[in-house]
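A quick aside before the break. I want you to see a complete sequence-to-structure record at least once, exactly as it would be stored in a machine-readable document. Don't worry about memorizing anything.
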Amino acid sequence: MMEIKRLDWDSDFFGLRIGRADIVSEEESKVLASQNVAAKENFDLIYVFASHGLVFPSANAKLVDKKVEYVLSDTSQFEPNYNVTLWDNDKGVTDDLLHLALVSGQYSRFKLDESLPAGSYERLYSRWIEKSVNGTFASEVFCYMVNEIPRGLVTLDIKNGVGTIGLVAIHENCQRRGIGIAMMHHVIHYVKMKHCLKLSVATQLDNLPACRLYEKSGFAVKSITDVWHWWL
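That is the input. The structure line, written in tokens, reads:
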């Protein structure tokens, strides 16, 4: 039997019985799919994380994400941008900041999977920016300011000498103006000053603008993982 781990946070947040399974071979894929009847007793939805290109043979499974993780090991080459500032956490989450958080999830599997309860994506990304501003999900929240209004967003968490980028967004009316690359250079400089050994970020392989941004900033692909939503 393939192990299916219950995800308590996801289950509570979405009001569903949610689990996770990881598969790396065709044999594991077939074994997991064969557990359909038994899995129904305990789960409504299972996130299946699979090696890139591996097919999961279930009619009720949707390929909702090709998650690509990028890593940057050399943080020495970039300088700060003075339009990018640390968000004043005392301001809380303003409407402008919340809008950017929702923009950051346009390619998210939680937006693309219409089988999830209505409003799931909005609630999830609202919670993400709230927890980033209060320091739970992020060490820092950076904003690119235009006329004192945040038009770009990057959240960053630093632990044990490793920086992890979370939310990244540029307002729809301000895209293709160099804001993304300016923010990325600023954050890379910041983690250098914090003596981080590396910086990582994950996005969707189908999110071509994000992939181009990270590759242009010197990031290299570390891994690609396909994510299926298996509804039971």
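Two observations worth writing down. The first helix runs from residue 8 to 14. The chain has eight helices and ten strands. We'll return to this after the break.
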